[in-house]
Amino acid sequence: MHAAPSFRLAYVPGVTPDKWARTWAERVPDVPLELIAVSAAQVATVLRDGTADAGLVRLPIDRTGLSAIPLYAETSVVVVPKDHEVAAVDEVTVGNLADYLALHPLDDCLEWESLPGLPANDRPATTADAVELVAAGVGLLVVPQSLARLYHRKDLTYRPMTDAPQSRVALSWLEEQTTDLMEEFIGIVRGRTVNSTRGRPPTPPAAQAKQKPNESGNARKKSATGKSGSGVSKGAGRGKPRRRA
């Protein structure tokens, strides 16, 4: 007995698949969408071992054997205690952090050419751990805005950074596993409507064959009666125009 079909979508912290999940439920009601929350470090593994059919990931990842479609980029922010002097301004530059200790967790998803601030002696294992250290007054932390919201605390706030690298979110899957369901999900995240060419099933060949005789038959009827959709009268085009005497 075969298992019922499903589509398994992994997603990393801070990425919210809800809107795409709702569209999937409307368009593919017979195939449940299973959401799998994974860490940024795990997502490539669950795609390669078949635990998930697709993943919403943060670039860069190891792209070996994987396809990826960039979806959007999000603003980076600096997370600080509410009473920190950085919290007094509306936005921050990398240069503004030069005199402050900046934490750089092992799961950092930003591509830095040069890390901001003063380096810490140790790197926190995760972004969540780094947020706890910020709350303890140990340092500051630069993260994508969605992660600042995910790990929000009442004693912390964040400010947008104008020149920090942005986090790029992408849809990824195994190159050799571009199934019909995968194509359907690609269409959803790319915003294709249900009536677009790749957003609806093609007309079956049998239905096309039935349409052609009717169409040609209608054309013969119009030709026989001298009627057409162009508004040309029956006598139009007959013989040569007469010259006036």
Main pleated sheet: 5 strands, mixed
Helix content: 25-40%
Give the CATH class of the largest domain.
Alpha Beta
Q: Whole-number average pLDDT?
A: 84
Number of strands: 10
CATH architecture of the largest domain: 3-Layer(aba) Sandwich
Short description:
The chain has 245 residues and is of the alpha/beta class. It has six helices and ten strands; from the N terminus they run βαβαβββββαβαββαα.
Description:
- The protein is an alpha/beta fold.
- It folds into two domains: 7-73 and 168-189, Periplasmic binding protein-like II (D-Maltodextrin-Binding Protein, domain 2, 3-Layer(aba) Sandwich), CATH 3.40.190.10; 76-165, Periplasmic binding protein-like II (D-Maltodextrin-Binding Protein, domain 2), CATH 3.40.190.10.
- The protein is 25% helix and 22% strand.
- The chain is built from six helices and ten strands; from the N terminus they run βαβαβββββαβαββαα.
- It has helices at 18-27, 43-48, 127-135, 145-150, 180-189, 205-225; strands at 7-11, 33-37, 54-59, 66-74, 76-81, 101-103, 118-119, 140-144, 156-160, 167-174.
- The strands form two sheets. A five-stranded mixed beta sheet has the order 2-1-3-10-4. Strands 7-6-8-5-9 form a five-stranded mixed beta sheet.
- The chain starts with 6 loop residues before the first strand and ends in a 20-residue tail after the last helix.
- The relative contact order is 0.17.
- Mean pLDDT is 84; it is low at 197-213 and 219-245.
